[in-house]
Amino acid sequence: MDNTSIFKKTIDSIFSFISKKNESEEDILKDLHQKYQTDIKNKEEQKAEQTNIKIDFIEYLSGIIKQQSLDLPMLPTIITKIISLSQNKNANFQQFADIVKADASMTLKLLQLANSPAYRGIYEVTDIEQAINRVGINGVQALVISVSLRGKLYLSTVSQKIASGLWKKALLTATLTRNLAKYFQQNESSFYTVALLHNIGELFSLNEAANFLKKRKGDFIPEENFILRVSQSFGLRVTRIILSKWGFDETQIGAVNTQDEDKKTEDSILSRVVYFSHLVSKAILSGRLRELDKDGLVYFYDSMMRSAALDIKSQSTSILITQSLREFQAFLELTK
């Protein structure tokens, strides 16, 4: 109850007392004062209890991270199949088509992607082989991984708004990373997967808030800003734990350190690309780039490139980012 509510309640009490007969003014004021003090005390006790819940949550999250007792689901089978196939140099077009065909929902989404503004040709694609040919093997991999992760992991009973924001950040970072991987002739699927998971620790921290509150069985739910700040604080450590348990190698795990802008970028092309993509996606989603003109955007992209120790011409950077934004919108629509 805020001060306005307390004041309103006090005023209501005044009218109630005034309507009573045979009571002295002194008695009325004394009773009002007592009621007001009780309301203030209740409010202070409520705030103290809420603060204690917040402290308990931080200690709870810190404890399960220290013990590495996070309740982690396995990566969806379709993702492990796609990743394994992408690492097989002898894998062929038909093998990828077979994985997609085995999932009716994925088949439909691939056709939708192939006919989206990001990939649309002069005619509409109606079968899987045509869709794969238009989108490309790497596009298929990106779609399968994105749809599977979004449906299995990027959900929250505490705040779907925060979960959706984390997903947008992950998806845009991954899309930028994949196009940069193509530019630098790197493994697009591997780069895309790591970038898509670079903030997964924040999501798991968010979901642990749901587990904590369920155990508390109380009515109070900490405000979203508090939960978001805590998730961000613990996110990097949780991401490392998750990637390690899911079998990612040291270079891939090291690449997620790049979301901490106070830390020096690790000397691998994967780390530098994810770092750049993280910075750009953060700026785009925050709306900071909307007011910049063409020269301002070029300056921003160049400064981000220098920060990530990447060497790309300004014109190429603009083209890559424009293409990435088109793909991002298409993938975002398909993963709602």
Structure explained in plain terms:
- The protein is mostly helical and 336 residues long.
- It folds into two domains: 64 residues; 195 residues, Hypothetical protein af1432 (Orthogonal Bundle), CATH 1.10.3210.10.
- It is 72% helix and 0% strand.
- It contains 15 helices and no strands.
- Helix 2 packs parallel to helix 11, helix 5 packs across helix 6 and helix 5 packs across helix 7.
- The protein is globular.
- The two termini are 37 Å apart.
- The mean pLDDT is 81.
Concise description?
This protein is mainly α and 336 residues long. The chain has two domains: 3-66; 140-334, Orthogonal Bundle (Hypothetical protein af1432), CATH 1.10.3210.
Provide key terms for this protein.
globular, 2 domains, 15 helices, mainly alpha, Hypothetical protein af1432, 336 residues
Q: How would you describe the shape?
A: globular
Look at the structure and give the CATH class of the largest domain: Mainly Alpha
Rounded to the nearest angstrom, the distance between the terminal CA atoms is 37 Å
Q: State the domain count.
A: 2
CATH superfamily of the largest domain: Hypothetical protein af1432
Q: Number of DSSP strands? A: 0
User: What are the low-pLDDT stretches, counting only 5+ consecutive residues below 50?
Assistant: none
Gyration radius (Cα, Å) is 26 Å
CATH topology category name of the largest domain: Hypothetical protein af1432
Instruction: Give the percentage of residues in beta strands.
Output: under 5%
Order of helices and strands: HHHHHHHHHHHHHHH
Mean pLDDT: 81
| Tally of individual helices | 15
The helix content, as a percent range, equals: over 70%
CATH architecture grouping of the largest domain: Orthogonal Bundle
- Class by helix and strand content? mainly alpha
Largest sheet: none
